[in-house]
Design goal:
3 helices
């Protein structure tokens, strides 16, 4: 009986041992494996921690640089867009400017054509000989006598003068340099017509000269037929306008007025410059605006260094 109980206990123990071994295999071994793996992971993490930190910092730096590059890309994209806009606007502005220039050139071309037609009409329709006859009656030859202060010798100057009807009488006008001479005193001036049948003697006391411009004048006291008033030009001439110069040059016709023609070539201080030929003796004559048929002023010969003569017109508006 006891043997049977012992045998039964032994069998139970064997069974329990088997169960326990099975539990050990199924439960404890996996736990040990997990523990080993955990420890290994922790050890690996500890070992890899510096590398992970460095890698993280590098990733952070890379992310920062990527963000900066993205900002720059956005900025550059905006600049590029603005540049494209400015270029497009510039092209549009240049196109508009080119159109405006073409329109202006067209207008100028049209104006030149009109002016060319007008000049042609003036040349074709203007009777120059008629202008010479019309205005020649106002122009006189002028000869002035001077007495040298040192030598007491008599000297003369020759020029031209224009007579005009004023409310106070008949006035003659001319250039001051016709009425003055260095180191000499004016004694008298003589005015004569182109035919030479009229001679007017003017005493020096009847002559007035300007201090500011090359201009002088006087009144004829002796009996003289009434004259017409000069029709002075109301407007300043333009460059290119045709002018007619009437006077009595020293070298030229002796018994008739001399006419030369040219254009207004520019402006020099108080003078108009002209391409018309003005010789010695023409000074004080009449400059006529052909287009408007009016008295423009006095042709004036100006010497530059006693070598080069410059043709000038003293405007009638100056006196």
């Amino acid at each position: 009986m006891r043997r049977l109980k012992f045998q039964s206990s032994l069998n139970n123990l064997v069974v329990r041992f088997r169960v326990t071994k099975k539990h050990i295999i199924e439960i404890i071994l996996p736990a040990v494996a997990v523990t080993v793996l955990g420890i290994g992971f922790l050890v690996g993490m500890y070992v890899m921690r510096p590398t992970l930190i460095t890698t993280t910092e590098k990733l952070s730096n890379v992310s920062s640089r990527v963000a900066t590059l993205e900002e720059r890309l956005i900025f550059l994209t905006g600049d590029a867009e603005l540049l494209r806009t400015n270029v497009a606007q510039g092209d549009e502005d240049r196109a508009k400017e080119q159109i405006l220039l073409q329109e202006k050139l067209g207008t100028l071309s049209g104006n030149l054509d009109v002016q060319g037609t007008q000049i042609k009409e003036i040349v074709e329709t203007t009777d120059v000989s008629g202008l010479v006859t019309q205005w020649g009656m106002f122009v006189y030859r002028m000869t002035c006598s001077f007495k040298n202060i040192d030598t007491r010798e008599t000297q003369t100057s020759k020029g031209s003068a224009v007579l005009e009807q004023m409310s106070t009488g008949i006035r003659f006008i001319t250039n001051k340099h016709v009425l003055q001479m260095d180191s000499a005193r004016l004694t008298k001036c003589t005015l004569s017509t182109l035919e030479g049948d009229v001679e007017i003697v003017i005493d020096d006391s009847e002559v007035v000269v300007s201090e500011d411009i090359d201009f002088g004048y006087g009144y004829i006291k002796e009996s003289f037929p009434a004259m017409l008033s000069l029709q002075q030009c109301a407007e300043k001439p333009s460059i290119g306008d045709t002018v007619l110069i009437l006077g009595y040059p020293v070298i030229g016709a002796k018994e008739s007025v001399t006419a030369t023609e040219g254009i207004i070539s520019g402006f020099d201080e108080e003078y108009y410059t002209t391409s018309a030929k003005i010789e010695k003796g023409n000074s004080g004559g009449a400059a006529i605006d052909v287009k408007h048929n009016c008295f423009l002023g006095l042709p004036t010969l100006v010497f530059s260094g006693k070598i080069e003569s410059l043709a000038r017109i003293l405007p009638a508006t100056s006196f």
